[in-house]
Amino acid sequence: MRVRAFDPVSGQIHELTLEASDRHGAEHLLAQRGWTLVSFATQRRDAAGFQTQDVATIAHDLARLLRAGLAIPEALQTQAARADSRLASSYQRIHEVVQQGQPLSDALATHGGFPDVLVAAVRASERSGRVADALEEYARYDVALRDLRRKALSAAVYPASVVAFGVLVSAFLLGYVVPRFAGIFADTAAQVSGPTRVLLAFGEWINGHALMAAAGFAVLLVAVVQLAINPAVRRAAVAQALRLPALQRSVQRFQMARITHAMDMLLANGFPVPDAMRLAHALAQEPKLSNAMQQALAQIETGRTVSAAWFESGLADGYARGVLQAGERTGNLGACFRALAEGYRSDVETQLERMSRIVEPLLLMGVASLIGLIVVLMYMPIFDLAGSLG
Predict the structure, then answer these.
(1) By three-state DSSP, how is residue 103 classified?
(2) Where residue 305 falls among pLDDT bands split at 50, 70, 90?
(3) Are residues 92 and 191 in the same domain?
């Protein structure tokens, strides 16, 4: 099974594979190293697959039934009977583990596919009897992040559509209209200007090699699609795009929204700040942000306050530091992290809206200029011919 374990000596969380049949076997093997089990997952998975949105669906449905007074096994059995075949198998597998006397957190970890943040929150809530609260909190957390991703995707769809439409119109003009203009004005090529001759030569070449031109365009289109769906190419493109200061700030804010949401959920379910930060550390995708999380954790473990550690490591600006200081005074850091998460999410939404307002007109102007240039070049032979006749 795959496990995540905490090493108290280094203060790091390690991921590794162990030959153990259950949680107790894994804990025994890790205890020999002096490590503590954080979460585990068996290697088997549903044949139908397990998608990210399924996690929020299961959490929301179980929380709703637990609020209605059903016990965990009853809620699982009820959902298994009404869910579609893919989710029904997941509910059934979780129900089987719970029926064996295992807690829900172990059943989720055994199933696999559930994030460590959720498993840890459920495990903590089982001690206080607030399982429904933990599940609802994760469902809200997931909905908020998916809403933010959806807005980011929506902000990118319109510019991409404009560019795609411009490319198609340009391809039609160059591949169909220009060759016919070339045939009409071929005999007058000596009397026209240089740009016009280039355009006519291009049109004549397409007329004479129509199949080759069509094949070339199809190969180019397939290559672009393949590059777009290639994970390595996407990562490289994203890395280049993230060099833009505006995008860097948005991505960092988005990650901070995820981290602070997770901190709120974990603290609300009884996790101490260091343990919550170790679990939330996995949500830091950028090396710079990951290092800042480690530095802040090291300072907190030496006795520094959360506000000071986060500020000095670069995780918090002056505003965030003030919010965290207020939480330290009132003893309610979870609510302060929730406020920060909502603020970061609002910042990302605002930044996306501003970028859309700037990028969309620029793209429209660029596409219109390209199409206009092609049209002007097509009509230049007429102007040149009229000038020569005059």
Answers:
(1) coil
(2) very high
(3) no
Q: Which helix (H) or strand (E) holds 35?
A: none
- Over the stretch 96-136, which tens digit does the pLDDT of each residue have? 888 888 888 888 888 777 877 788 778 878 877 788 888 88
Mean pLDDT of 163-170: 75
DSSP string, 40-66: EE-S---TT---HHHHHHHHHHHHHHH
Are 278 and 6 in contact by the 8 Å Cβ rule? The answer is: yes
Note whether 349 and 203 are same-domain residues.
yes
Distances, alpha carbon 302 to alpha carbons 6, 19, 274, 297, in Å: 18, 35, 11, 9
Q: How far is 376 from 242, CA to CA, in rounded Å? A: 37
Same-domain status, 164 and 289: yes
Q: Which residues form the domain of 47?
A: 2-142
Provide the residue count of the chain.
390
* 12 pLDDT higher than 70: no
- Do residues 93 and 187 share a domain? no
> Which tops the pLDDT comparison, 314 or 46?
314
Q: At what angle do helices 116-128 and 273-280 cross, to 10 degrees?
A: 150
Mark which of 142, 167, 198 sits at the end of a domain.
142
% residues pLDDT > 90 (the chain): 5
The last residue of one of the domains, among 98, 118, 142, is 142
Give the three-class secondary structure for 315: coil
**What's 183's domain CATH number?**
1.20.81.30
Predicted local confidence at residue 325, as pLDDT = 92
Q: Residue 390: which pLDDT band, with cuts at 50, 70 and 90?
A: low
CA torsion through residues 105, 109, 114, 115, sign: positive
> What's the domain count of the chain?
2
Q: HSE of 241 in the Cβ direction (CA atoms, 13 Å)? A: 9
- The residue with tokens 């992040």 is 145
- Pair (257, 382) in one structural domain: yes
d(CA 278, CA 307): 17
Q: Are 336 and 326 in contact (CB under 8 A)?
A: yes
